[in-house]
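Supplementary Methods, section 5.1.

A reviewer requested that the exact input to the structure prediction be made available. We therefore reproduce it here, unchanged from the version used in the analyses.
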Amino acid sequence: MMCVRYFVFVMLIFMSVPLQATTQHIDSNRIASPDAYQLVKAAIDNWRGVSSYADMSMTIHRPDWQRSMRISSWTRGTDHSLVRVTEPRKDSGNATLVIGSQMWSYNPRINRVIKIPSSMMNQSWMGSDFSNRDIAREDEILDEYIHTLVSTELIEEQKVYTIESVPRETAAVVWGREVLRIRDDDVLLSHAFYDQDNQLVKIMETESISWMSGRSVASLQRMRQLDKDNHWTEIRVHKVQFDVPLSENTFSLGALRNPALQHQP
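The structure derived from this sequence is encoded token-by-token as follows.
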């Protein structure tokens, strides 16, 4: 989830890095421009690693209410992920499994696994500002988009790359384009989503960065809906471990139902 996609998802265990700073533009003709595709791929790989386990919380905010839940997630590469709600008690056990472009959800109250059809991929995930598609296809932006490096900035002695990602003509995607800002240590600072009329619809922004499990990671991110006042969802990372050993059963329909089949550091 860069995601969950994305998922894209802090109680700061390590020192946070402030994001506000004086910005200096760099003449792109005087530097070796990195490959835009590789920058996007590196940002995804930085969060997921070969495999990962994360303990997170998600807060959904609306003008007249707010609720939070605790979440555990497991990933392997860009094709496998499993996300399970652990708190509060009334939501505990709800889970989502992603294998490639396929997605299933499990509701323990009715003890039923449901495969999510393509027609529901743009619907809200767990009532949040993330869609099912955001959770399911973190690698979609790599496979279905053409990436262009449009600018480079220097923020607190670190380069920040702005990349425009435009869908291929044959891509079955929702967005007209996406714009990402990625730091030179592979941390995603923001991800903006534009519709087919080039109107900004929603944006995910990193609000805190922490050193966890040997790398800098986005430890607090907020997704905002631009057409809805005071609607946002925050993902706060409490713990993350990379390159953890995971059994073949971790990403299965059996594990979707049964938490005992999952590795939990």
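The helical segments are 36-48, 132-136, 140-144, 253-257. These observations are discussed further in the main text.
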